[in-house]
Amino acid sequence: MFDIKSFFKREVEKKLINVDDYIFMPERVEMELEGGILNCVLNSDGRVDIFYSKQGVTEVGSASRKHPFTAFETELYHGVYDDVINDLIKEVDKIIDSSSKYFSRSKILPFTAALSQNPVDKNKF
């Protein structure tokens, strides 16, 4: 059964709380989490960028601002962006736990060819 009241309520909320109508003060929250570094950045356009780095592997996620009238740190403390953070942590851990069938730490990668000391004459070709 279609709930017309909730449909109209959602449409009215979309019109009232449209983050495109606001300019936010950029904020950044950094913390250590599960052996890595988590950076949450609120941009002035209402986009939230989340970076998670661990053992040299970095994954980035983005979300739109959920509650423009709530402080950004309060949103973080209440877990508004926890789904994005959990996905980033899973992706980084998956990358760290995987290994390549082509490269291994025991193999030494060859150096590239050395560049010559003399510049090439441009008129030669």
Commentary on this structure:
This protein has 125 residues and is an alpha+beta fold. The chain has helices at 4-16, 72-77, 82-97; strands at 27-33, 36-42, 47-54, 57-64. Strands 1-2-3-4 form a 4-stranded antiparallel sheet, covered by helices on one side. A hairpin with a 4-residue loop joins strand 2 and strand 3.
Short description:
The protein is of the alpha+beta class and 125 residues long.
Properties at a glance:
alpha+beta, 4-stranded antiparallel sheet, 4 strands, 125 residues
Let me know the number of strands.
Answer: 4
The SSE string, one letter per element, is HEEEEHH
Distance between the termini: 76 Å
> Order of strands side by side in the largest beta sheet?
1-2-3-4
**So what's the overall shape?**
elongated
Number of DSSP helical runs: 3
Main beta sheet: strand number and arrangement?
4 strands, antiparallel
The low-confidence runs, each spanning 5 or more residues with pLDDT under 50, are none
Rounded radius of gyration (Å): 24 Å
Name the beta content range.
15-25%
What is the average per-residue confidence, as pLDDT, rounded to a whole number?
Answer: 79
Give the helix/strand class.
alpha+beta
How helical, in percent, are the residues? 25-40%
